Amino acid sequence: MAAPTPVRHAWRALTSLLVLTALLFGINALGVFAFTDAEGNPASSWAPELALDLQGGTQIILAAKTPDGAQPSAEQMNQAASIIRQRVDASGVGEADITTQAGNQIVVQVPGPADEETRNRIQSSAQLQLRAVLFTGNPATSFVGEDGKETPYPSPAATLNATPTAAPTNGSDPSWITDELQAKFLAYNCEDAANDPANEPADQPLITCDDTRTAKYILGPVELDGSSISDATNGLNTQNNQWAVNIVFDAKGTEVFGKISQRLFGETAPRNQFAFVLDGSVLSAPSMNAVILDGKPQITGNFTQETSKTLADQLKYGALPLSFEVQSSNSISATLGSQQLQIGLIAGLIGLALVAVYSLVVYRALGFVIIASLAVMGVLTYITLCILAWRMGFRLSLAGVAGLIVTIGFTADSFIVYFERIRDELRDGKSITGAVEDGWGRAKRTIYISKSINILAAVVLYILADATVKGFAFTLGLTTLIDILIFIWFTHPVLQLLARTRFFGGGHRLSGLDPEALGAVYRGRAQFRSPVEAGGRSAAQRRASRSRGEAERRQTIAERKLAQQSADSRSTTEGDD
């Protein structure tokens, strides 16, 4: 099968670009019209989301609490701030600003209004604990039986047949349940704000409730904490087609959890259960259905995709070294605001205008190809930022705007490389269609190398730079990739088609591809006739003169030096004669 002609190749590339553009707009339209967020608003919009420095947001100040009331160390605060950042990032919020201040405070600033889920992720800041379940029951102190009479809630010790006089031997030993603990459990009110189980001693049993306040527990002492969990993810269990949470323990956690599973497996409920406790509340209390020695348990239950992901994130990012309380939560105004955004946009428009003027002056009508390419690139970049805001929580900061502006210069530089290669081919006497193809073949290597360096710099900057600079690195890398796409699927195909038109292919003096104006040395069959000037010099003589001048200009220093040496040698020989 014969290779496609340049014209057919050009139309295929332009069609591919059109399909890609339509696909991107269609994806964003789904987010606008078919999907909603937790609050019922459209999941996406037709405008990129703005970061904290441009639109303001929500500020939450957390105060650290230590068991002995001492000042937390800087290492503890930095670790806590890092984990809270992971929690916020996991919720899909981009461009959040998280800092420490006053030695014991963490300031969390998120763009726009923070939804309830994000607030819960930030505020659930106590250390994750893993405790055995000793007893579980209804939060009420009494219940209505089948006979319609109110009956006192059964005592834990009576239900478990415990003998509270013996010393406990392990974390799930019912001997932990003393008479005093039974009385506290029966009187414990899950709705009472005065109850604060988050700061209870780790080596003692705990009375608490689940996070929905529908069950209350007596739990054994802490046997593992969240630092032993190296990873937690959600996924679909292929055996029962239900969502599950997959946990991975580190080496120490694997050993301890293996012993716990051996102890709990085969016990009767609720002593076969193991509770994950965060901020004093039970997140989940699954039963031990097997002996797990590989450190990779799976929690199953009535999960949805969203609830399984929330629990996985809480387990993964719950290992804070400190507990926190919310000191304040309020809205904040933009630190830079719309005025700085307008200044940035004006700077970008000025840059575009300068590039357009330069292109038209230097490359004549060929400059319109540059302007059209920049316009297509702007459309693709804009819709991509809208989709990223929906799917990744990306928000455009002032640093990101700077990255977009800088890309204009990088893109213009690539056009210059391409067009100058075409002009070089024309100077060597090739036809315009041949110059476009050969110029592209040589220019694209230089362009690819240049763009690869830009992308590498953007990746390194994104990984190593401060959060305030990440927006610049991200937009720089994104637009560089789009720039390469535009060159392959738009700029070169358009020139392939234009080179076959009468205006460009005929070398019109306003096309920017006039061989005569470029000083072509040889034109082959392409002959451009000009009337004889007054004074006897024909157009051919003028072209020959220009060609000689162009050839002289293009001589290297070494060639001129060699020519001078040859002339001096001839002069010496003639003198001897």
Percent in helix: 40-55%
Beta-strand level of the residues, as a percent range? 15-25%
Number of strand segments: 14
Radius of gyration: 36 Å
Query: Please, how many domains?
Result: 4
Query: Strand order within the widest sheet?
Result: 7-8-4-11-12
Shape: elongated
Counting helices, strands and paired strands, the structural category is alpha+beta
The main sheet comes to:
5 strands, antiparallel
**Under the CATH scheme, which class of the largest domain?**
Mainly Alpha
CATH superfamily of the largest domain: Multidrug efflux transporter AcrB transmembrane domain
The name of the CATH topology of the largest domain is Multidrug efflux transporter AcrB transmembrane fold
CATH architecture of the largest domain: Up-down Bundle
Q: How many angstroms separate the termini? A: 69 Å
The low-confidence runs, each spanning 5 or more residues with pLDDT under 50, are: 142-146, 522-536
**Tally of alpha and pi helices:** 17
- Mean pLDDT reading: 81
How would you describe what is shown here?
- With 577 residues, the chain is an alpha+beta fold.
- It has 4 domains: 7-33 and 337-505, Up-down Bundle (Multidrug efflux transporter AcrB transmembrane fold); 57-122 and 328-332, Alpha-Beta Plaits (2-Layer Sandwich); 129-298, 2-Layer Sandwich (Gyrase A, domain 2), CATH 3.30.1360; 533-576, no CATH class.
- It contains 17 helices and 14 strands.
- The chain has helices at 6-33, 52-55, 74-90, 116-123, 156-160, 179-187, 251-264, 305-316, 337-363, 367-391, 398-427, 432-464, 467-498, 502-505, 515-518, 539-554, 557-576; strands at residues 57-65, 97-101, 105-111, 129-137, 142-144, 150-152, 206-209, 216-225, 229-237, 242-249, 274-278, 281-284, 298-300, 323-332.
- The strands form 4 sheets. Strands 7-8-4-11-12 form a 5-stranded antiparallel β-sheet. Strands 2-3-1-14 form a 4-stranded antiparallel β-sheet. The protein has a 3-stranded antiparallel β-sheet with strand order 9-10-13.
- β2 (97-101) and β3 (105-111) form a beta hairpin.
- α1 (6-33) packs parallel to α10, α9 (337-363) packs antiparallel against α10 and α11 packs parallel to α13.
- It starts with 5 loop residues before the first helix and ends with a helix.
